[in-house]
Amino acid sequence: MKTTGIAILNWNGLALLQTYLPSVVENSTDADVYVIDNASTDASISWISENYPTVRIIQNNENLGYAGGYNQGLKHIKNPIVVLLNSDVAVSPNWLAALEHTFETYPNMAACQPKIKDHKKPTHFEYAGAAGGFIDRLGYPFCKGRIFSNLEADNGQYNTDDRIFWASGACFAVRLEKFWEVGGLDQDFFAHMEEIDLSWRLQNAGYEIRLCHQAEVFHLGGGTLKSFNPKKTFLNFRNSLFCLAKNLPSKNVPGSIFTRLVLDGLAGIKFILQFKVVHCFAIIHAHFSFYGHLPKMLRKRTKKAHVPATQLGAMQKLIVWQHYGLQKKKFNQLNFQPKFEKLP
What we know:
Layout: E1 4-10, H1 14-26, E2 31-38, H2 44-51, E3 56-60, H3 65-74, E4 81-85, E5 89-91, H4 95-105, E6 109-118, E7 121-125, E8 133-135, E9 141-143, E10 146-147, E11 150-151, E12 171-175, H5 176-181, H6 194-204, E13 208-219, H7 230-247, H8 253-273, H9 277-299, H10 319-325
Parallel strand pairs: 1-2, 1-4, 2-3, 6-13
Antiparallel strand pairs: 4-12, 5-13, 6-7, 6-12, 8-9, 10-11
């Protein structure tokens, strides 16, 4: 068995597999490559079998989403390190060796991500992870190289394997033992932001998350849900609240949720002014869904969910104000020095 397994989740993604799987197979000869299929009805599985017989196929009986699909599929994988790789990602020649070297260098690191760049504009970072993810104290995500929709060019400004708060689900490399130790991905998320929740739980358990800057991958983005899809708006807003309820210290949950209610309401008003009323309704739906799930989310809290997020690399300042109020477009303009305190 090889050290690393690469797990690609697929659902009716024949066109994406035809475009991106060749680079994965070609540049990952030292890894086992798996495709976890979420009950596709297209010809993707037969195409893989005919063209890439070395790729191992794991078939789920239904579409379980990102979280459920991976949880079910990873039960059949035993490699010590597994890379959860989106089906719309092309990889570079030395990406795998760089990731494995980072795991060897940092034994307390549970997960990492490469630099994620835009397949359509390779000089720039891509939205889903860029050079490593962070959140502010209210759970709003941003990245080195990406604040909201503002994407930076990669000029080597983030070429250090620094600790980050969350690693991107577009290319999430994790020690499989640690993945299962904290319970895997939360299937109630279905899709979007479950990697932030997983990263947060791994940190609460005392492990590190890092960037591997020497590895680069190129992400198409929006392969499953386009940015203008209101379902994506619903999942992002709701699942962000899930993260807060599950992982913040208990005393911080009520105030944070109330403040988010106000700020998310302002976001809804902004959508209305932009004539995107369906997205406003998606935010309202997200909050009602969250409140319906709140008792369940609170039951999922662990004894380790007691550390302030700002001690795990979250930003005390509000990224909404920093970006929209103070017009800070780049990560380095935030004057943000993450604090990572050793847990007891």
